Amino acid sequence: MDGNTAAGEIDAAQFGRWINLAGRQRMLSQRIGLNLLIAIGEAGPDASTLETLDAAVGQFVEAHQTLFAARSGPSPLAIAGGQAASAYEQGQPSARNVIDAFIAEMTQILSGLKRGQRPGAEQVRGLVPGRCNDVLAAMNRITLALEQDMAAATEARARQASERATRISAAARDIDGAARFSRMIALNAKIAAVRAGSVGVEFAALTEELKSIADRIQASSSCIIFDVGQSAA
Fold this sequence. Notes:
It is a single chain. This protein has 233 residues and is mainly alpha-helical. It has helices at residues 3-8, 12-39, 47-67, 76-80, 82-89, 95-114, 121-195, 201-232.
């Protein structure tokens, strides 16, 4: 399955969930930076600040794993392909590398803070605003790419629905034409049966049944054509 086909099979609601997750990561990256600065302030980290920082890092990692780093099998965006997968994997440095480095460094710093070890000023300056801004920029690119993928998928699904409706309408018209032809044959056969007198009585009953069947088929095909037209409108 190629990327475009896969993306076309994903509905807008799923893309919406991914876009929300990407937006959440953008917000969390800034919250992490802010709480890190608070944690290393002159007073040192208190329990509440550490708890908030720990929760923010955990939520960021969870959202990242949901979008990009599935524990088993390909990630959702790898399956979908499209612009978002490219935005994550490509670039110098790639969004993948930026985010992985951010997670690794924040996890290491958080672990040290819990043990009473404060990071050096140079390391903190590299993270805030440096790496935090890099993550924000990377997630902005991915969010934009997701929005483009959603628009492309929505357009593809609409096009597929239109093509399907066209095929159904064409088939229904063929059925309708066959039913009309069957009715005409049944009518001619009935006239012939009446002319045949008593010999054609049983044949006349059969042609009446054939006409009834053709009428039902024609009515059904007309309903299909009408319903498809209403759905496409």
